[in-house]
Amino acid sequence: MGVQEKTVRTRGMKRKKGYRKKVSWREQWELMLIMLPAFALIFIFCYIPMYGIVIAFQEYVPGAPMIAFDGSTRWVGLKHFMDFISSRTFPRLIRNTLVLNGLNLLFGFSIPIIFALILNEVKLSRYKKIVQTASYLPYFISTVIVAGMVLSFLDTNGLVNTVRRMMGLSVKAFNMDPKAFPVIYTVTNVWKSFGWDSILYLSAMSSIDMNLYEAAKMDGANRAQQMWYITIPSIKPTIMLLLIFAIGGMLGTNTDLILLLYNPATYETADVIGTYVYRDSLLGGRFSFGTAVGLFTSVLNFTLVFIANKVSAKVADYSLW
Amino acid sequence: MAKNTQIKSHVKNGSRAFDVFCVLFCGMVCLVTLYPMYYVFIMSVSAPEAVNSMSVFLFPKGFQLDSYAILFKDSQMWRAYGNTIIYTVSSTLLILITSVLGAYPLTVSGLRGRKFFVTFLLIPMYFGGGLIPSFLLINKLGLYATRWAIILPSAFNIWNLILVRTFFSGLPEELRESARMDGAGHLRILFQIFLPISKAVLAVVSIYSIVGMWNSWFNAQVYLPSVDLQPLQMYLKRVLVQMSVDLSKLNSTEIADAVEKMFSATQLKYSMIIFTTLPIIFTYPFFQKYFIKGVMVGSLKG
Amino acid sequence: MRKRMKTTAAVLALTLLTAALAGCGDQGGQSSSDSGQSSPESQASNEKSSDESQPSDQGQPAQSGEVHKLTILGPDPGNQFIKYEEREEYEVWHALQDMLAENGLELEIEAVPQDQYTVMIQTRMSSSSLPDIVNVSPIDDASLIAMGKQGTIQELSGLIGQYSNGNIERMYKEKYNTGYPLIQTSEGEIYWLTNLHKGNTYESKEVVQGLGIQIRKDWLDKANLEMPETLEDFTNALHTFREMDVNGNGQQDEIILVDCQTFANGLAQVFGLGNGIVALDTVNGKIVSPWYQDHVKDYFVYVNQLIQDGIIDSATVGSTDLQNQRLADNLVGSWYAYDGATYLDAYVTNGTEGVDYEPVFTLTDAAEGCVPWKEVETSQLVWDRYCITKACTDLEGVVKFLDMIYSEEYSDILTWGIEGKDFEVRDGMKVSLINSMTNEEKGAAKRSSGSPLWGGLLPRIQTSVDYPTKEAWEEQQRTENKSELKIQALEKGVDYKEWCPLMLDNFLAMATDEENETINRVQTGIQTYSDELCIKLAQGTASLDDFDSYLEELKELGLDELIAVQQARYDRFVQSQN
Question: Do A72 and C152 count as a contact with CB atoms less than 8 A apart?
Fold first, then answer.
């Protein structure tokens, strides 16, 4: 057993730092030239427009230059940030955002892995393909339709309530119940995307060396053991990669879906930063406020990625950097 | 697969039960996930009355193909189809190239400034300048209202680049080292040694890009004012937007037209979804074969 | 390995090819590769070729011999039957071209699909490539004024004074007398002009479009009930609908649709409540909030009872999808709409015959001493915004264009179409010949007034008819397929005193910078809290016992500030009217 584990370990893990010699300058240039197309495009299309962030610190009006040196720009410093943080709804927005994302992290993250692991064990190859194709279909259906479908299922005369009625339970308007919202949101989200999210794991599993399994079989490992000692360690870098980014998305939510599923009755658990900014932007002319809130969440998210990466490097020996 | 028989003799009952469980579980999943697409389909062929009352759940109620007929007759729609194919194919190929080229050097141990490069990649994933500066840039570059405004900003994808990098760094370092010994340049190592064994990740990146591009509309909304160059998703979106107009915000002279539009869109949106997603669904199995079977990386080692 | 190399090479070649093809196709389609301008120009050049032929056809070039060329950017009106892209086939479009030619004007119009327009305009205004005239409706007042101050858009009052033949002022000051204060800043500057709409009058009284509760007349008949006049009658009717199962589907599922997350739902007005978080009390000339009004608690008690009785299906609150579903399924006994709306019956699509929604006008005796209000779309409407950008150099031409727009002749083709074909003048009153046609029929026959064809690209100046007698007006309404009950409701609305405007903005003078600042700061917070509270009180998940604490919270969120700001704006508006 131990032997296989080690074989797996050595692949996919970074080499110890001491092993690394700096490459020669000639090689360095060669490598940088190879990188150039990608990095140049990123620089042009991502970095050049980044000056737009400054409007978070001003009272921006469309049509005006974002950075003017003639004094026409109205700088307001951190005013928009303060407005947001000190607003009376702020604690609730943060709480809801974290709760919905926490749930999503718990289920939306683990279910694709579990699904991929189980699918990987299916030996009927045609069946496997069909299941996989089916699993990722919901990803293609526009959020508007999915939300409409979910609401009609949960409707007082929809599928769920029909079943409840047959079981002798009372009919409930789930879409108006703040307690039900996190569940509805999480289930819809997971349903829509778990198949799609599992693609990456399946692809990672496909690259596992079959010899490892055979050796394990020789050692008498059963299927569950093989899964635990070979498959999971092999896809660990992929898991860590996705986990780090999932944690770095803690303050962003699937705003489109929430907007379609929530209503004032469920604000209590459904109103998140994204939806609040959306409603605020309907007032018009709130570019600066929107940008400030966006920047606020970006900074926090980026910090989270950073921390997650540090932890991952320590605990799981996987690091982005 | 031949080894299966061998294993059965080892741990018979447990394994068979496990197999059955896996198959059943996947069958359940299949049902749950096939349903929405099926739902959209039966809505698209049901009688409009049933669609309006949203009473279609298991079987179509009534049958008609009128909404498909409307779509088929729309020449703008076919042009949009063509546009989407152009955008999808070109940006997918470009993304493959940029991701591979961008990712490889980051996996060479001893590269100077690796931390800087990775940070350079990560920052734009979280910070962006927003709509207006991007628009001004596209405008300055002379790309506004051209196809390039869609293709160039989508010629790279940082997430895909990171995926490829993660995959490459999982490949055995010896592969590269031995090639270096033979005096091979990095570009050659990349194309001749790394890429052939990276089909799985390339397939994933392709799927991600194809689907991403096929479903994208935002850049088109901002950079393409003329309908002639717009992709398919803009059409779908137009239908969905008509549905969701807030009637209470309209005045009495506008409301009757809006209601008319809303009614015509109720069913159209379903046939539109079927129509726009079918091609993309059928491309999937093509890429699937590259990673579902399993490429035996290990066997190449020797 | 060799094979692999080949594949790679092929892939590379294919990429370049596709990219190149994409580029080529692109250049083929575009007449110009000039930065940022290619589409507007190519579109404009199409436009030009059609327009240029116009003057020569007519053989009447402008008298001065000078042609003013103007560029316009606006949203494609997007009518699904009367299509802007088929405009050349409409006679009324050629009438517009003739009118332009007579005035020595030539337009290059860029029409952007409506769903893109908001984003498009926000970004385009930041660029340097702007057309002369832009529909800037998606941008709010405060931003527009700021843009005016920094010169992105031009101040108009000076231009109008210098070049105008007086049409613009005449239209705004004489015909649409409430319009000017709405487009004038406190310093007297004008940065944009608007659509103008005026409803019909009879006997010199303006016919307003009231909103109110509509009830299924066919169900009332079935249940042998009179049209309800008091709230009690109404409630009883709703109960009877259920008890009798008037839709005959075997279930007691007849409901009423009430958007109880807002106050603009008809029922709140029955209790004399305003129609928004702040609303205008026209009788006293005060801005009020329904939260402070007398019968607000009575209203919530009533709504809560309806929900408990199942007469309001709480699942439908705030969900258009589910509301439409209930309507389609023939479950809805009553909902809220324009009194004169004729499209409601079409919502019921499950094959039921004889669907007949009719307005109850308003219900009395909701509570002790309670006078019902009526939400009303006033006869004069001022909406959308059109401005002149800094890119415009032909100022004389642009004012000439605006003078043409704000003229009777333009208004006629926009509202009515072509005389003799689309409308006639009988006894000095205009009578439409195409009003009874559906849009589909109009589109097939290529007959339409200008409004659906180009409204929004060019301003809409909609005039009306002044009917000398009530009877003449009624006659006209009947030709538009309005039922007697609807006509009666509209008539009642004419004389009704306790009304509040649907578009409050049409009664508020333009906000100052500080006022905008306040509104922007407090509005979303109050809206969120108020919507949520409304629905919770209606559902009974929040208790009326704690009402004072809710008011505390609303004050904390800035409700009083908001009222004060809107009151100040209203006062300025009234002042400017005198």
Answer: no
